[in-house]
């Protein structure tokens, strides 16, 4: 059981790392053009909060036998911080102020959770408090592609929903779901069970509509799954103009 628990944790680390690195395509474009164009920085700031809370929850003094949760989310925190910094550097003044404000709020929330858990809570109460906070934001992160799924159903086309990102959302959610079950940890199992289910729905939609992609288009970036349909449409229009 312990070996399986460890193996699923390692596999979860690998699949989650792929998801964290997927937006590098978008940021290469931002750096090259020295502009954030129509991209939104909100998903990266919110993913940073999720990574911080999950990394904190996985630490031994919060929850036992979850160090693999901390390793990948610690790495994710570093990666998302780089994304946010790059976005702020190249964002327009108004957008820069909005993202800085949201980043301040995110850091305040994480600091508050960390301080309360350290100073006011102990044992199971600490695990419960940190686990609930991490689980809530994990579900929010996994739920972000819902708008894209709605667009796929509406347009009957998967051009806005890259297959490999959908696949790795499913694999990541599944591996951490099983990891949580084996470790009898509902704060890991429940949000990743949601991720597993949403990933499976994305794959089902892909296979239903895979032969109906419309006219040949230039590919859009991996940022697609993190953006609303309006932003995705704007990105597609920008790519077609290049």
From TrEMBL:
It comes from the Eukaryota. The chain crosses the membrane at residues 6-27, 39-59, 71-92, 99-122, 128-148, 160-182, 188-209. It is a multi-pass membrane protein. Gene3D superfamilies: 1.20.1280.290. One of its GO terms (molecular function) is sugar transmembrane transporter activity. Keywords: Cell membrane, Membrane, Repeat, Sugar transport, Transmembrane, Transmembrane helix, Transport. It is found in: Cell membrane. One of its GO terms (cellular component) is plasma membrane. GO terms for biological process: protein homooligomerization. Mediates both low-affinity uptake and efflux of sugar across the membrane. Belongs to the SWEET sugar transporter family. This is Bidirectional sugar transporter SWEET. It comes from Salix udensis.
